[in-house]
Amino acid sequence: MEHRIVSFCNFIALAFCLSACDSKEKDFDATGTFEAIETTVSAEQTGALLVFHISEGDNIAQGQEVGLIDTTQIWLKIKQLRATKAVYRSQKPDMEKQIAATRQQLQKAQTEQRRYQELVADGAAPAKMLDDAANQVKVLQRQLDAQKAALNTQLTTLDSQMAATDDQADVLRDQLRRCHVVVPVGGTVMETYAERGEVVTAGKPLFTVADTEKMFLRAYVTSAQLQTIKIGQKAKVFANYGDGQKKEYEGTVSWISSRSEFTPKTILTDDERADLVYAVKVAIKNDGFAKIGMYGEVKF
Questions:
Q1: Which helix (H) or strand (E) holds 209?
Q2: pLDDT digits over 172-199, tens only?
Q3: Contact at 8 Å (CB) between 49 and 194?
């Protein structure tokens, strides 16, 4: 009889403990997985990938050069443009030398005109001689003006051609710059898609880098929870390593979805009966321990 009483008491105690555990409030509001912004870097020029020295898992810094596409053809075109510009420059006329003879003739004719003006004024020469001198000055002045106009046109044409070669060279130098594969954002190399020596075309993906210092937890909350969550709100984020092992981070709500979606089967929410949930992102500053795809928890 005593044995039955003890067993019944143990059953009541066990039921009470289970009830207490079920009713215990969870220490998180939602769960999800850690993500990071991934950037796919593609080739910007076509040619042989002469240098490519990164591997999956490497940590690379923003602005670091990790590859080089063959630049030979571009360099040859730049040298050709330089030679063309030098030819144009050599063809530019020296205006002062070109018009020196005509200017000297004009100055001589103007001197003769002034002399005849004095002679005619003194009655020592007929007026026709002054008219002839004046006409000669006009002819030489028109010749000088025509020479200047022709030379200015020639100079303008050559200057335009030289400027065009400079523009073409700038385009080639930009293409040359694009042959250097530079990391746009720092982070961890997630995957590579090319090998050194391979001929790549413009637009071909070379590798993907993820910013693992600025990560976020994508979690899902119900509409009931959503009314107490706003962008910029502080939150506690926990990286879950399993077996009760967790690491806490200070987080900030950085994004809230503007539309609902059906509850993903792999996501747990505070109210599992809800059919529709909203995705939220909680940003954290990673110390290297949070990994992409790792499960996490958030407490708002």
A1: strand 205-221
A2: 999 999 999 999 988 999 999 999 999 9
A3: yes
Q: What are phi and psi of 52, to 5 degrees?
A: -160, 95
Residues 6+ apart with CB under 8 A from 6: none
pLDDT of residue 269: 53
> Percent of the chain, pLDDT > 70?
87
Q: For position 1, what pLDDT does the model report?
A: 36
**Is 296 buried (19+), middle (13-18) or exposed (0-12) by CB count in 10 A?**
buried
Full DSSP string of 246-262: EEEEEEEEEEE-SS-EE
- CA nearest 188: which of 166, 213, 169, 163? 213
Structure tokens that stand for 174 in this block: 């930009």
Positions in the chain whose pLDDT score sits under 50: 1-24, 272-274
- Identify the pLDDT of residue 271: 52
Q: What is the pLDDT of residues 34-53, one digit of tens each?
A: 999 999 999 999 999 999 99
Alpha helices, H only, the chain: 2-23, 72-90, 95-122, 127-178, 223-226
In the numeric block, the tokens 């003194």 are attached to 122
Cα torsion angle, 104, 108, 109, 114, sign? positive
Element spanning 205, H or E: strand 205-221
Task: Let me know the angle formed at the C-alpha of 170 by 167 and 174, rounded to the nearest 5 degrees.
Answer: 145
Which amino acid appears at position 114 of this protein? R
For the chain, report the end-to-end CA distance as a whole number of angstroms: 53
Please report, as a single letter, which amino acid is at residue 71. T
> Which residues touch 103 (CB under 8 Å, ≥6 apart)?
144
DSSP structural state of residue 269: B
CA 4 to chain centroid, in Å, comes to 78
**Which residues lie across from 299 on neighbouring strands?**
236
